[in-house]
Amino acid sequence: MKFSQSFIPTLRDIPANAEIASHILLLRGGFIRQLGSGLYTWLPLGVRILQKVERIVREELNKKDAQEVLMPFVQPGELWKESHRWDVMGPDLLRMQDRHKNDYCLSPTHEEVITDLFRKNVKSYRELPCNLYQIATKFRDEIRPRFGVLRSREFIMKDGYSFHIDEKSLHATFIAMHEAYSSIFSRLALDFRSVEAHGGVIGDEENREFHVLADTGEDAIAYSEVSSYAANLEKAEAVATGEVAPPSQSLTKVSTPKVRTINGLVECLDVPIEKTVKTLIVQGKDSPIGLVLRGDHELHEIKAAGLPNVLNPLTFTKESEVRHRVGCNVGSIGPVHLQIPYYVDRSAAVLSDFVCGANEDDFHITGVNWNRDESLRNSAIQDFRKVVEGDQAPDGSGPLSILRGIEVGHIFKLGTKYSQTMNATVLDERGDSINVFMGCYGLGITRLAAAVIEQKHDDVGPLWPLEIAPAQVHLVALNVPRSSDVESAANQIYDQLTKQGIEVLYDDREERPGVKFADADLIGIPYRISLGERGLSQDSIEYQYQREAKVELPFDQVVPTVLRDLT
Ligand code: ATP
Ligand code: MG
Question: What is the pTM for the complete model shown?
Fold first, then answer.
């Protein structure tokens, strides 16, 4: 690949509106260009990266006997109505009508299409298990496309789907896919974690997300340093620590003028925040419901929305209704004699001698104890707070740490969710018709390419892992075409390496050295050979791996050294 004949539009300056490394460096290195909101064109060097990521993905999936298919990007709305997701998906699903006024949508995912393919073509348990995947374009009308291709509207995903006669067979493939994903991310030398996660609109059975660890990640991951426990914060279970201490204070109503917040309360009464509780009021199916949390803890809205009788999506009760129901402002509510039903978070439930609102403006109660105080006994305890650094892991292994991650893959057990709604059945050994068990396995190809940069870059450019770099060697010929010695030496190196199957980007342009080196940094090819007139006259050629120290090689050692390093 000769630079002079390539389309590699690098950028000297940091582009406007690009905030994070992967977005900035993919633009600057001439890998992508933006077309519109959440829409990107991949340029030649970018395509090479994607193709290599895809090759690794294909190799690891094929090893597990998954087979590749290719399904349409435009899908009939009928299928989505059958699965009831036409309504559930909301505006992420981009809908349209054809000339006959039939409903269609752009593919955000393919559970419906694959289930339809399966039910029309597979009839017997003998044809199971069946594991199919594709690498294809997806469209999701994301509310906030951002970070370039990390969260775009159109993107490339590997999505796979498996079909099984029973849960045991599904589990075996789920494990096999977990292994395949782990191999894919290991081959890219990524620091990643597989975590427990929420199923979202795809399904709610067992599922794991794969995260590439990076400070810029949108997700937070709680993990144990000593065990394999790791969970997305959206899912991480919060456990209470310690035993309930016996009461030592009596219940006392105290005046707290104008106190409306936990911080105000802590200041007014000079109590530790861990000894206070706050009560939030949300809409329930029959009446508003109180959610009692320790003062320093944060409500986990997804967990709260899943509590019995709480409305999903979670909706906070209006201030006026709270006053009507409870008789005070939202900052003075507490569980003692609360007139509406409430739940107590696990960590609030182990407090003793704590402080809470008195359900009366400008008053709080101190010395409150769950087991002693009449109106508080038999409170319903649930888990609805966010995990924080240092919380105990639910497996009892010790404290949790929290890191940020970019979700690059998500594997699910779907069970019979789609096979039931869409009536996908096979005949089992006894000739009975049963709904097949399904799994689904997503991996964002374009997001993964960007996530690699988030983890592997320095101040000047990306540090691509060899397996997916746009080329293996960047050959920088200085002072060409003026110096015919350099030109002929560089041509020889290029020809010899290329003949050996090494991918070389050969900078043969008539450009200043500064321009060539800056471009080489922005492109980030792992091995660099630089030769100029002065060095060559002393039989010395610079050789460098990523941004490590340069070594000087005599001309006849260059090709053997590269071959040794690359094979
Ligand atoms: P997120 O929570 O980040 O929106 P998701 O849970 O919607 O992701 P899945 O439906 O599991 O994602 O899709 C499978 C994979 O597709 C994700 O793990 C991710 O790698 C990729 N992906 C999802 N949405 C996008 C997007 N908007 N842009 C790029 N890749 C995406
Ligand atoms: Mg999403």
Answer: 0.90
